[in-house]
Model the fold of this input.
Amino acid sequence: MREAVRALLSLLEPEQVRELRAGPSRLDAPELREWTYLPGARPGLCTEGLGGDQREAVDVLLATAHSAPGADLARGAIEVERYRRTAVGAAGPDRYWVRLLGDPDGEGPWAWRLNGHHLAVHVLVTAAGIRVTPHFVGSEPARVPDGPQAGRRLLGPEEDLARELVTDLGAGRRAKAVFAATPPDDILTRADPFADPALLPGGLPYADMTTPQQQLLERLVRRYLDRAPAVYARECWNDAVRRGLDTLSFAWAGGLVPGDRHYYCVRAPDFLIEYDNTQDDGDHAHSVWRHLRHDWGTDLLRAHYAEQHH
Done:
């Protein structure tokens, strides 16, 4: 990851470097917890004006925050957004914003993030580890209707696993899991700086599921965690197992038939997952992975700054 940052820096002009590195000195500054997945400008260096080698270097950096499947997903969000922009007649290249915070060649914590419409990745690195949340991927349309990407469902696995789970539930269990016939029009935590699990419905506990249903929920959770580099994804999963998978719960709203507008979430003591496909008549999907302790690298930063004061 450090080498990818260095490679990008080596290709940028001085003014571009200033845009890339603009930000507060402390990585726990409140302004750094402001984010969005909606269209519009962000702080940082915009990819719109980058040359080919520079843009390729950004793509390489983006991949370092992910596993191979996670990198495909992040890259796919950019590709589907290109389709959307063409479909609505938007001119010009991609518009994502990259920020570099801190010194990747120093001994202290440092961070970078890439943010744009339907893609938000927030990376923090210290000697103790890496963090990559909040992590958001969206797809508009949810299924590409035509062109070279025709039939592509970027978030298809995330949708299909959850639907397989909810449709496998018997009437009693489904009554606990399904909290509304009409789904919310977006993820419930929106772009909140700190995700509040109390916003999410309780749903059906893992402990109340059959073994095959529990296995489906495990696969769904790991689908999100496995966006991250393998070591960190494994750390998150092992934490969940150590705390007890019985602490997981699953909730659904909306229709059960593919194409119906729907929403689901997974709650755990220290992370949450949300997915909605409700806008544009069920053809506009959002997915987010939030970690209550790890978002923005809060736990690593707290440990670092506490150590500095001793």
